[in-house]
Amino acid sequence: MTTTTYHHGDLKNALIKAGVEILESEGLGELSLRKVAKQAGVSHAAPYSHFADKQALIAAISTEGYKQLYNQIESVIKLHWEDPETLLIETAWAYVQFALNAPDRFKLMFSGVLEKEYAEFVEISQENFSQLLKVVEACQQTGVLKSGSSDVVAVSVWSTVHGFTSLLLEGQISHTVLEKASLKDLLILII
User: Fold this and answer.
1) Rounded Cα–Cα distance for residues 136 and 154 (Å)
2) Distance CA 145, CA 92 (A)
3) CB-CB contact of 95 with 73 (8 Å)
4) pLDDT tens, residue by residue, 25-74
């Protein structure tokens, strides 16, 4: 089997996309720079021009995931900013839907698998938390959420929604419960 090498217009993003495809179809254990190169149709050495190792690729995949999550929640904020109660519900729902639509990437983003800091990953994850703070503060101003330190309340809200999402992804919510209420209705009950 021969690999065709060529100049790729956006190699980094093509490699990230290939990594996501492998992650979703085969799992993290099968993700490698060599497989990503093959999936993207480039030489096995090509990924090294953007990623020093598998960890750097994982950081890039996670970073892109956080960017997508940020954009989805930013759309919710723009749409529901004037109604803090709806804003809180729809922000939480966007988080759950992101996880349902990309469960392997979601799990990777929050797995702690990254062994060292990657500046872009750290920055976008902090931007996501700042976005949540903005939602929490808007909800606190109108009494939708309790007053207090907004970062503490944000961690509490995030923990609750993340826990619900994790239970959902792991199939830990009983089918008898799911027959009685929609996922969104269950989410509303917990926040």
Assistant:
1) 6
2) 14
3) yes
4) 998 889 999 999 999 999 999 999 999 999 999 999 999 999 999 999 99
